[in-house]
Amino acid sequence: MTSFKHENVEDLYELLEKLGSGHFGEVKKCREKSTGTYYAGKFIKTRKCKGSRLGLDRDQIEREVFILQQLEHPNIMRLHDVFTSKAEMVLILELIRGGELFDFIAEKEALSEEDAIEFLEQILKGVAYIHSRSIAHFDLKPENIMLLEKDVPHPKIKIIDFGLAQKIEDGAVFKSMCGTPQYIAPEVINYEPLGPPTDMWSIGVITYILLSGLSPFQGETDQETLTNVVSGNYEFDDRIFKQTSELAKDFIRQLLLKDPRDRMTVVECLIHPWIKPLNRNQAVNRSRSSINMKNFKKFNARRKWKLSYNMVSACNRLCRMKLLCNPMKDEEELRQCESDQEDEKTKPVTLLRRRLSNSS
Ligand code: ATP
């Protein structure tokens, strides 16, 4: 089991280019000096004191670490090492080089349902693994579904970001209002008990988008999206779903059910005839049906635009805090002091993600 190291991460790892960023810090490529192996270092700012609005509580990060430590599955990102210091914690993670699944698909000219299922089945296997360990992810969305490598015949799915994941102990009730509006289940908004079925709703939404390029509950605003989710009403527009098989729609229908007890479990999903055809007819249907690529590309372009818009707003806020703008500070010093700053006037970057906010 990985233990927390107190030395400076840069003594053991060479920090390289930035790979991505979240609301609580950055992810950078890094190279372990002793072995030459490449990893992804997730740098997470820790909250300086209880009332502080910047950074994450240490125990929240420790929970992510505790969960990742228990997971070893080909479709789940692995944790290699953890560092802790006064202002930040650094998770050294398996390096995932293939980018997001949705970006990979959006580059294709066409994709049959059969091809899409090859990816979906891997997502389901990863989720089945965590659910079998009584862990729910609670943040399944396209940004958290990546490919280990993309220039290979059968790219391997990796589920990332266990920042909201929870171990659901037997008989315990867990409630939370976290997640991303487009993908969260009605029980999250209604502040009702959550569990593995909450992930299954998100898988229903992801599948719907994958096939159609439409988001089933998306409204003009987050408030409207949340209202649509709670109503549970959505439809399969014939013009958009004309290339979609009936089995695919059945698969989605059995996930986007308001009552979590009515939804398919992940194990049931894996044996649904759309995923595991029972006869030749069903198998042929999957290869003849295809995803609505024109719409999907549009959805993905909009999604990327919104993500970068949110990121630019976040950077602007940091700049207003005069942190990114101080050329005198070296990187380590900068990382240390970012966590110590408070911005009273603007809504902090740090709170955006774990709340139901402008991320849909
Ligand atoms: P968010 O606020 O979006 O939930 P977060 O702070 O929890 O983000 P992650 O989602 O874990 O951080 O990572 C942010 C981004 O960094 C990812 O979207 C991805 O692009 C990149 N990333 C994360 N982990 C890895 C990895 N293991 N290998 C390569 N890139 C990664």
UniProtKB/TrEMBL annotation:
Q: Which UniProt keywords apply?
A: Apoptosis, ATP-binding, Kinase, Nucleotide-binding, Phosphoprotein, Serine/threonine-protein kinase, Transferase
What is the protein named? non-specific serine/threonine protein kinase
E.C. number, please? 2.7.11.1
Q: Cite a GO CC annotation.
A: cytoplasm
Family, per entry: Belongs to the protein kinase superfamily. CAMK Ser/Thr protein kinase family. DAP kinase subfamily.
> Taxonomically, what lineage is the organism?
Eukaryota, Metazoa, Chordata, Craniata, Vertebrata
Q: Which InterPro entries match?
A: DAPK3_STKc, Kinase-like_dom_sf, Prot_kinase_dom, Protein_kinase_ATP_BS, Ser/Thr_kinase_AS
Q: Which reaction does it catalyse?
A: L-seryl-[protein] + ATP = O-phospho-L-seryl-[protein] + ADP + H(+); L-threonyl-[protein] + ATP = O-phospho-L-threonyl-[protein] + ADP + H(+)
What PANTHER family does the entry give? PROTEIN KINASE DOMAIN-CONTAINING PROTEIN, SERINE/THREONINE-PROTEIN KINASE 17
Q: Where is this region: Disordered?
A: 335-360
